[in-house]
Amino acid sequence: xxxxxxxxxxxxxxxxxxxxxxxxxxxxxxxxxxxxxxxxxxxxxxxxxxxxxxxxxxxxxxxxxxxxxxxxxxxxxxxxxxxxxxxxxxxxxxxxxxxxxxxxxxxxxxxxxxxxxxxxxxxxxxxxxxxxxxxxxxxxxxxxxxxxxxxxxxxxxxxxxxxxxxxxxxxxxxxxxxxxxxxxxxxxxxxxxxxxxxxxxxxxxxxxxxxxxxxxxxxxxxxxxxxxxxxxxxxxxxxxxxxxxxxxxxxxxxxxxxxxxxxxxxxxxxxxxxxxxxxxxxxxxxxxxxxxxxxxxxxxxxxxxxxxxxxxxxxxxxxxxxxxxxxxxxxxxxxxxxxxxxxxxxxxxxxxxxxxxxxxxxxxxxxxxxxxxxxxxxxxxxxxxxxxxxxxxxxxxxxxxxxxxxxxxxxxxxxxxxxxxxxxxxxxxxxxxxxxxxxxxxxxxxxxxxxxxxxxxxxxxxxxxxxxxxxxxxxxxxxxxxxxxxxxxxxxxxxxxxxxxxxxxxxxxxxxxxxxxxxxxxxxxxxxxxxxxxxxxxxxxxxxxxxxxxxxxxxxxxxxxxxxxxxxxxxxxxxxxxxxx
Length: 581
What we know:
alpha+beta, eight-stranded mixed β-sheet, globular
């Protein structure tokens, strides 16, 4: 047996030990499911209310069961017998009823007094689990079968490894992840906030956060302008008929907010921007000489994510996309997609991103009702993107069922510092919407033909990108993105006027600075500035005032260096201009 298979078998066996322990401690609970997962296992229970304070008690009970040397024994039963065995377990009963009438069902006993519905395999006896390292991780709510329409259950997550050193490393990484979690950093650094009275999943960007967003937005707009993109601004809502024309109403309605009916018309908050951009293209006549036309927008969009899917600013109900649609001739597809990939790689280089993979996202051929359009156009689009990726030399893998409903796409999957697999950038090839909106251009033979549309987002959403950057940098943002680039502190009141003059000069040079003239001690001011993760701290006292210099403390260093104001200003401006990491 391979090491990974063995570990998964041990984890699965431990999930039964957990279920038995919970049953012994809380006899009235109802059992749901308990699979092995990455880093451990979980089990879902109904009628169970526990907190982390109960974890040690549960762990001790699990160790007690392991020490009993109880056998895992398998028994095969028919459907009728299984229903009788689990008649007091409604969730098991539901699973059994989903099976065919003639199904042979396997049940595993742990000892003589506990059994569970399971395919196995398991270890032969709990004694083999004595060296298995485990630790209860967290308790969450989870809908039965993942549907909000079903009851919320209590899910207990447990870390579990064959090797105790692997558990130690997992726990270390967990602590690291807590420190990097963008939700914690966002709160600590006053970047964003949420309030249920405003609405779940609706982020409020505080001054520090808005500064980061503006810097990121300006950065990508400048990149796009240099490549011939034209920026537009379109409304955040649209007529329902717009989305019926695009196909979003039929294929995406469940992810949209409900329609608002006013004056015999119905409007919806837009989930994406492509229908608006189609209408911009349609507003003008186009010749083949006009193409490609690259339309871009920093656009606010809205999607109804379920409460359980919301995750800080990584997944929200209101977000801002760095979106673009390129209208081109078929013979321009390769050059345009190549150009987008080069832009993506250029941006990733600026941010020092290396841990990413290209994914060719295709439709699921066994579930074609999820997608619109005909087979010929789908095959044509998928073939074109596959050839472009192959000729580019980029390493990629294919994933069926990950396409947009109107076309295949190239997704760039980036692994975040806390282990999340995030789609940061995407390129989508679309023959369908030009047909839906009857888009045209006049070709070289003076005939009306359809353009091809390339949907493209380098940052995906600014919100998700900022979450990613915060976690990558642990909040230690590069100077050009830092909300406060320089914090100016004074030793005493005598130095206030000098500090004000330095502050004003920095502001005039468009360097983001803050001035701390409080009566706190210098040590406390420095600690506060360090906690805010400011790029530079200037400590100004009598010596600096007399010599007309600044004492510079760079982030991450406890030492200060004296230099002239002009020397310091040029240092900071150069880092901002070069987007130094």
